[in-house]
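Hey, can you fold this one?
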Amino acid sequence: MILKTSAVRRIAGRYPFGHSGDIEDAAPGLAPGEVVDVRDEGGRLVGRGYFNEQGATPLRMLNWDGGEIDQKFYRQRIRAALERRRGRMTGTNAIRVLHAEADGLPGVVADQFGDVLSVQFRNAGVERHREMILKALREETGATCAFERSDTGERRKEGLELVSGVLWGTLPERVEFFEDDLNLHFAPMDAQKTGFFLDQRDNRRLMRSLVQPGEAFLDVYSYTGGFSLHAAKAGAQSTAIDKDQVALSVLEQEAAANGVRVSLRWGDALEQLAALEKDRRQFGAIVLDPPTLAKRKDDIPRAKRIFTDGAESALRMLTPGGHLLISTCAHYIRVDDLLDAARVAAGAAEAAAEVIAVTYQPADHPHLLSVPESLYLKSILLRKE
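Sure. Predicted structure:
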């Protein structure tokens, strides 16, 4: 496969994605996901990668030295990923083992919860090599059982069917793990994505450190309520809002199992915020953490309006000295977008606020300098004056 001259410098600089406009020529008859040698127009080797002519991103680079893509390659990449995380993760037995391109394996996401591994294959290349990858994961992680949640829309763009199910071992109905002093669980085939949002771990701990015993805490777009449970363990009076009744049911079970109480409100987040505001409720700390609102650049204006509306209500209900965490998991939304939305919201709410911190994803979700897309989780922490 030949790259256009205009794309060589970027891709040779360890940027892993080659788009259709970057490709000068490719051999006919290549199977989707086949490993190809990538060269410049002069024939010099740039590296090797998966190629899928029909994919949204046709080229996904694997290496820049031309080495073989075999069992040894996958074991080395997984071993390096585990070594990268060694010593970084404390207080939990649940970590992200593989973070796709950021761990040198585009299209593979794997989370481990104790002895249980959750795996996601997102493109045609890793689908072709799934047996080698699974063998390497089993050997390197030591997981006694594993399940697959390759049911994301990205697979359809690659011409692949959605797949989920047991990969090896006996999968429990409930996958159990711990985070600090909380015992948590999820149903592997019913939970969102790979099972649990591990990427908010640091922010959960941050908000817990800020709440006071007896203080009212509001968790907006709570899902299974990780923020709510941490705050309740610190003595706060937690309230969780979500439109997913199954997730709220899990939260109710986990609250009982951990000896805390969380009030549940089912429904649309903005409508529930308006109802709380109408009831003149006040909170010492609030989290606004919606699902992905911008899957494309064109979605950014709409997403900012939702953040602004939510933050306006939150700031009105926040007590002076209280904290508001606004978070996004969308790559296309920048920190500046969150700050802009919060600034407009504060003006509408006639509230003054200080930016206390800007936070990003935790260490088991690495952000590579050469891969801007590997940075996706961004949050701003505000303190109301």
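The chain is about 30% helix and 30% strand. Let me know if you want another pass with a different chain boundary.
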